Give the backbone structure.
Amino acid sequence: MMKEYDPLTPAEVNDAAKEFFPLFDIVHRNMPENCTVDDTIRVMETICSMAQKRRNFDTPGVGPFGFNKKPKKSPVEETFASLFFKED
């Protein structure tokens, strides 16, 4: 059984590289000339964060999960909201 702190195998690193580098290349191609790898990785983090938010927005029924779920409104709260907060 593998433990979390066992060394990575070459196959695991290869699989991760196959996922990482195509995404890195997409971002790096759009970066200004003379930018560093560090610059690209920082921008990539921001872009991936935006992509996650877009996925949540564009895909109904996906997330939030666990303690991030919004609690369901009680019938009293729904009635109150419908009376005082009209949706256009």
Summary: The helical segments are 10-29, 37-58, 75-84. The first helix runs from residue 10 to 29. The mean pLDDT is 82.
